[in-house]
Amino acid sequence: MANVQVWTGTEIKALRTAMRLSLREFAAHLGVSERNISKWEAKGSDVTPIPVNQAILDTALRMSDPDTKARFKGLTGGAEISGAETIEPIGSSQVRHPLTGSSMVKVDGSIYQAGPSNTPLWVPSYYIDIYLVSNADYAQFVAATGHEPPQHWENGTFPKELANHPVVWVTWKDAAAYAKWAGKTLPTAQQWEKAARGTRGATYPWGDQPTPAKCNVRENGVGTTTAVDCYQSGTSPYGVYDMCGNVWEWLDTQSTPGRRELKGGAWTSQFDRAVPSQFNDANETMCDDDTGFRCAAPAEDLERLLHGTD
After folding, report:
1. What is the mean pLDDT of residues 155-163?
2. Which residue from 82, 206, 253, 300 could staple onto 189, CB 3.0 to 4.6 Å apart?
3. C-alpha 227: how far from chain center
4. Coil vs helix vs strand at 284
5. Cα–Cα distance between 139 and 157 in angstroms, integer?
6. Which of 170, 173, 169, 171 is nearest to 289 (CA)?
């Protein structure tokens, strides 16, 4: 069976027809303008969208139901997009950050289902920390920079039994300062949610089944933070830990001046507050025992570091 290596207006029209969507609905599904759809379909095989839109179309077909894929094959003479049936493997692109040694995983650029309404959004490739920043990680930053340690550390030192627990009592500015020192960034709300839900828009990191036992939330009665590698059964499609529960995570996305988004819920949260699509925010100066963070990095920047081309 032939594979479509490059999308043209012909295949685009076939996909819209197979999905049984109007121009407006199809444009909204892809996150592009109606004008683009009309232009592509009018020019047929004489037009090829730019690479970012090629990737969006690949993802749209991959995420389609079996009936839609069958209709698409019928309309295109049996063609399908290469890799359309591929399911993203868990943790297949893990690396060690060359400056901090932290484990990160690559999230390839594609559209994903965002927010409670599952709006399709495009996010370019990036890497995200597999684990929350721990007390031991943060201690390296404090030692290297002289940054003020969290208020619950005695004499500037964290309790040894909490070395692998997420650092807490940090403001957004503390988290952003750590990320800059580490040669990373804080993830945007879109990057964080995509890493939590995958491209298929699962309700929870592990799927659609509400299972509080897979994360550290109030219903479990743990009553404190847990180690950042504790809940293996609750990892996301990319193998990322603690994207439900344990601690709220500071994000780079500003909601209003002086306020930043938070995601993921915490050990203090009810399970329904830990759903990755839910919105939450706080003042940048907020500091609590249930709030921490993880870091991200643009794919191109990290890969230059890994390959020594900077």
Report:
1. 94
2. 253
3. 21
4. coil
5. 8
6. 169
For the entire predicted model, the pTM comes to 0.77
Task: Find, among 291, 20, 299, 288, the residue nearest to 151 by Cα.
Answer: 288
What's the residue count for the chain? 310
Query: Amino acid identity of 57?
Result: L
Beta strands 126-129 and 248-256 are unpaired
- Rounded to whole angstroms, the Cα distance separating 195 from 112 reads 10
Among candidates 131, 150, 123, which has minimal Cα distance to 253?
A: 123
Which one, of 7, 67, 76, lies nearest residue 43 by Cα?
Answer: 7
Nearest to 238 by CA among 78, 96, 106: 106
C-alpha dist (Å) from residue 140 to 135, 183, 287 = 9, 14, 20
CA atoms of 125 and 107, how far apart (whole Å): 6
pLDDT of 178-199, one tens digit each? 999 999 999 999 999 999 999 8
Q: Tell me the two tokens of residue 102.
A: 């932290």
- Res. 275 pLDDT band, cuts 50 70 90: very high
